[in-house]
Amino acid sequence: MRPRNGFTLVELLIASFIAALTLSTIFLTLNASIRTFHAGEKSMDLYQSARTGMERLAAEVRLAINPEGFWKRRRNPGAGASTTTLAELVSRRDLPGEVDLEANTITFKGSRANMSFVQIEADSRLSPSYDLREYEFKVNDDHQLVKISTRSVLADQMAAWRAMRFPDEEESYYAAFIADAQYGVEPREYVLTDRVTALHLRYWDGEKWRDSWDSEEIITPEGVAAEEIPYAPGERPVRLGLPLAVEIVLTFEGDKSFYTVSDVPASLLNLIPHEKTGKVISRGGGRYLRDRHRRGSGVVLPSMDIDQPAAVDFSNLPGVGRLIRQPDDGRRSETRYR
Q1: In sequence order, what E strands does the chain have?
Q2: Which pTM does this prediction carry?
């Protein structure tokens, strides 16, 4: 009797087991590779969103204009009086057509979660093609970092001048003028980046970080109230102006945080008050420029703890470059690039 050619049942079971094990290994390996690829792609996308958001917001901050760079507040109109107080200056309205002391609408205001300031807008597609527009920067309900055009400062100011020259017009020219949508009064929203869960800001005044900023804040000598400072004809109070730098911390999905520090070039126009009188003595940016320092081809900024107030030496604060840190493991890391 001739033996049969073939496999026994045991051999078939063993072969099937080996084949299944091999296929499972291949499947698991491919699946892990695909998951790793998608995770890496998602991480790269997140880092790209972070880089884009930080780059764009830092660039926007550097475009902020200084209240001292355009129209001036009205100086003391009372030529007959030798001195006057801030309260008296504010109450005077005897020169129609001139901007009141408190009427400079070019401001920089910021809190921990948002900030607003004025930029020059030059776009031939808009009407008018040249404008001064106030923008607000914040994170909206859709987890997007947005730039919102809130008003046309130029149109607002023109209307204010008109209203002061013709105060007896029956219809409010001011209200009618600024209500025109072509002047940018209606909010326009621009998305800078998405997947942002939080925005945290701080403002550098040359000595310390501030959690809020108001460019209209009057700088006074220690222990002296703003209302108590006498102002002679031609004098005016010194206001805070622009911050020298803004610290930006963006938190994205997955609690990944990134930060950068952006300088504000127009802060060079800030006025410095005398430490005793509170009067203007000079422009504010010269010392800041002299202290700038670059290292090599890239830029290194001082490491900062985003959860605690930082005592930072800003002698190394550069005019260009970024520093991004991702403190998800508690360690500090610096990325240097141009």
Answers
A1: 108-110, 115-122, 130-139, 144-152, 188-194, 196-204, 209-210, 213-214, 245-252, 256-263, 271-273, 280-283
A2: 0.65
